[in-house]
């Protein structure tokens, strides 16, 4: 039998087939329907969220520590240009300290990187920095606008139902909810969102679009300046790939 028949009965059945009955409570079908109909139920609580956050931060910390440990011991992997490039294009030598790579990365300038690793690599690094800055700004805006709106709106529990048209029956009132028993994590979500609260989401969506467009404009304006400086550099003008061969017939 098709698995979908176990979840929801059809209004009509083919000839010769007995009508399907709804799955009673406790069965796997109703459990699945309840889960997808209420994604902010107890299955998605603060414990699972903080467990996922701890796992992500812990794994990131392990990878950083592993990199700091392996970097001075595997220069062939992490610093091949220091051994094979010429003096002009070789990167500055780093100490074998555990965090001695942080200072040079923080203080290096883009024009120095252009001489060492080329224009394409500098554009890629600038693009990654742009993404980092975008997510930092969006995080601050989201924490400063969306979370307070959700917290204030959900602190009073589910909103009362809006009155329907006069010719229709008003919807039944929502079940009473003890706000003191609602976890803080659920209050940070749009669980009881309704009405004018969603104007905050609409305004934030436009603000987010404006922030993204601004960073894209700012980043590619700098990329154009870097490209112009690179095309006017002596190294590029004296290189073979900057020349054009024209063949004409006399």
Q: Please give the alpha-carbon distance between the first and last residues.
A: 80 Å
Rg value: 30 Å
Helical content class: 55-70%
Most strands sheet: none
Query: From the helix content, strand content and strand pairing, which structural class follows?
Result: mainly alpha
Helix and strand element order: HHHHHHHHHHH
Q: Count of helices? A: 11
Total DSSP E strands? 0
In one word, what is the shape?
flat
Estimated share of beta-strand residues: under 5%
How confident overall, as mean pLDDT?
74
User: Would you identify the regions where 5 or more consecutive residues have pLDDT less than 50?
Assistant: 1-11, 170-176
Structure commentary:
With 250 residues, this protein is an all-alpha fold. It has 11 helices and no strands. The radius of gyration is 30 Å and the shape is flat. The termini are far apart. Residues 1-11 and 170-176 have low confidence and may be disordered.
